[in-house]
Amino acid sequence: MSSKQNNPWHFVDNQADFIKSTVNAIIEIPKGSRAKYELDKETGLIILDRVLYSSVYYPANYGFIPQTFCDDNDPLDILVISQIETVPLCIVEARVIGVMRMLDQGEADDKLIAVAAGDPSVSHIKSIKELPPHMIAELRAFFEDYKKLENKSVKVEEFQDVNIALQILKEAIDLYDRTFD
Predict the structure, then answer these.
(1) Is 129 annotated as a binding residue?
(2) Can you give the residue range of the structural domain that contains 71?
(3) Annotated binding residue 109
(4) CB 79 within 8 A of CB 114
(5) Is 110 labelled as part of a ligand binding site?
(6) What 3-state class would DSSP assign to 150?
(7) Does 58 count as an annotated binding residue?
(8) What is the CATH number of the domain that holds 99?
(9) 174 is in an annotated binding site
(10) pTM score > 0.70 for this model?
């Protein structure tokens, strides 16, 4: 049986600030990795789910927002843009700047896009529209390609602004509260 007090999904406060558009992100996968690490929901430890089948690397630090829950039975995913790779289970204060709407095997699997609030190279960015077009293209290409050799389909829909992202965040917090309280 899992213990909420030792599991970062349940124990770490998401520190959601809808005025500043900031939230705590818990990183599972460092930028530049081919390893697909994932939080083990029972133990709160990081497990190696798999090594990516395709010759691609995560374009940003990837993780989840604690105390959130989505229709895919996982916490809400977040990509945190930074000039550095962070280690798994690192808590990063992240400024949400948008969202990538995505379908994984036909099911919604949104990814919030954020910048590391403590990284001066990106902390000034407040909107997904400020990202270089090539960075958006890299994010799209990675998620459309990373499961192809597993014969799984992923479709990246639209990148949307911070207002839509914060609405998705609020819904994920509300669903967590209804599910786990």
Answers:
(1) no
(2) 3-180
(3) yes
(4) yes
(5) no
(6) helix
(7) no
(8) 3.90.80.10
(9) no
(10) yes
